[in-house]
Amino acid sequence: METKKEFFLECYKLGIIKFGRFTLKSGIESPFYVDLRPLASDPKILKSLANYLLEMLPLDNFDLICGVPYAALPMATAMSLESYIPLIIKRKEAKDYGTKRLIEGIFTKGQNCLLVEDVITSGKSLLETIDEVENEGIDVSDIVVVLDRQQGGKQLLESRGYNVHTLFTISEVCKMLQEEGHLTDDEIERIQDFLNGNNVKFEEKKRLSYEDKLEICDHSVAQKLLKIAVEKRSNLIVSADVTTTKELLDLVEKVGPHIVALKTHIDIISDFDADNTILPLKDLASKYNFLLMEDRKFADIGNTQELQFSMGVFKISNWADFVTAQVIAGYDSLDCFRNVGVVAILSMSSTGTLTDLQYREQAANIAVSHPNVFGGVSQNRIPDELLLFTPGVNLADSGDGKGQQYNTPEHVFNKLQTDFIIVGRGIYKSDDVEKAALNYKIAGWNAYEKSL
Ligand code: 5BU
């Protein structure tokens, strides 16, 4: 038979405890997070668990067995099957039709019921459950708990006269995990601190500087951008959302000295012409040393994107240093951008965007693993190996009345650890475009240095 430790390590593999930094319902930050529901996904483990729990108990004392909903329901069921003690089911809320019963199953008043709980923390919610069961005329003397978080729950219940049996305590679990090399001494210390009721200090992960990023981002476009940033002491990208070639070139003459890249939506230029629009733009880019970022947001299958990228009127592949692309069509759809860099759209700045946490994580996985991708556009932190581009930056406004949401440079450098800010109307709509560009450049650089 396996030891209790071996059994726990099997359970741990199901992902029931995570270590890191978690905000609990109470708002308190915890260095670990426990969720025992995955135990029910492995029938062999669930059966062993039932037997481990039963072994600790004076079984003759109990007429009934009841799990606290929901995590302990399968545990109580398994214990009932192994011990032949009948199960009753406690509802979370009394149903508002039919019998209005809070407890389902066959029982009589005065029977003694064993309560089963997955995790005990403060014990307060268990006390409420006990009350509800006792109100039905059922006696409760014992509670069996799989994991004691050691935050006073056991003591509270014992002070009210209940016997509390716990299979594992968090300290015991941490010790086993430390012995197996799953936890560092630092982590153990932090957990002990937390259990002793001290305020836990989490190390703030330092953001990487442009010099650090130069070491880890090896895409040639990332290297160029980072070098320009350091040289020009700028992280500003101007979004040139103007609609004629003249406006575009005038704007670039003014902002060129202050930016690392110019972001275009080339399809909104009404008099686009490769010779008259792109050639002078390329000249200005080399004169002022910045890159061209075409914000095309490709979102189709690889073959179509390849055509959109290299054919048509705009022939983006002829002139853009890097482009933006959605990752909605999957990893392979990005293969066609071989000769440029790609910045993947991981989340959007507009109200009601569908880029929720799950989408962002999957999108980031594609971005990190695809060799053509060196960055992400996002309103959230992204993995260090990507460069983060953040639009929706404005010093004066909080929105545009059309769904755009703005943050300050300070916010995006501090909270998101962005690398490059993208500013459109904050600059090109300003009365003094050059001064506005300089202001954003300085604000962006100061915010970057402060965030280091
Ligand atoms: P603004 O004028 O600073 O609001 O312009 C922002 C630019 O960034 C604009 O060209 C958008 O198309 C672009 N953008 C954005 O605002 N939000 C996003 O999530 C993405 C791009 Br992706």
TrEMBL record:
Catalytic reaction(s) noted: orotidine 5'-phosphate + diphosphate = orotate + 5-phospho-alpha-D-ribose 1-diphosphate
Keywords carried by this UniProt record: Decarboxylase, Glycosyltransferase, Lyase, Magnesium, Multifunctional enzyme, Pyrimidine biosynthesis, Transferase
Documented EC number(s): 2.4.2.10
UniProt GO molecular function: orotate phosphoribosyltransferase activity
Binding site for orotate: 121, 149
UniProt keyword Cytoplasm present: no
Keyword flag Lyase: yes
Xref: InterPro entries: Aldolase_TIM, OMPdecase, OMPdeCOase_dom, OPRT, Or_phspho_trans_dom, PRTase-like, PRTase_dom, RibuloseP-bd_barrel
Orotidine 5'-phosphate decarboxylase domain location: 235-440
Name of the top EC class for this enzyme: transferase
Pfam families: OMPdecase (PF00215), Pribosyltran (PF00156)
Domain of life: Bacteria
Pathway per the UniProt entry: Pyrimidine metabolism; UMP biosynthesis via de novo pathway; UMP from orotate: step 2/2; Pyrimidine metabolism; UMP biosynthesis via de novo pathway; UMP from orotate: step 1/2
SUPFAM superfamilies in the record: PRTase-like, Ribulose-phoshate binding barrel
Sequence positions that bind 5-phospho-alpha-D-ribose 1-diphosphate: 25, 91-92, 95, 117-125
Cofactor: Mg(2+)
Family, similarity comment: Belongs to the purine/pyrimidine phosphoribosyltransferase family. PyrE subfamily.
Its biological purpose: Catalyzes the transfer of a ribosyl phosphate group from 5-phosphoribose 1-diphosphate to orotate, leading to the formation of orotidine monophosphate (OMP). Catalyzes the decarboxylation of orotidine 5'-monophosphate (OMP) to uridine 5'-monophosphate (UMP).
HAMAP family in UniProt: PyrE
Subunit text: Homodimer.
PANTHER family associated with the record: OROTATE PHOSPHORIBOSYLTRANSFERASE, URIDINE 5'-MONOPHOSPHATE SYNTHASE
Protein name: Orotate phosphoribosyltransferase
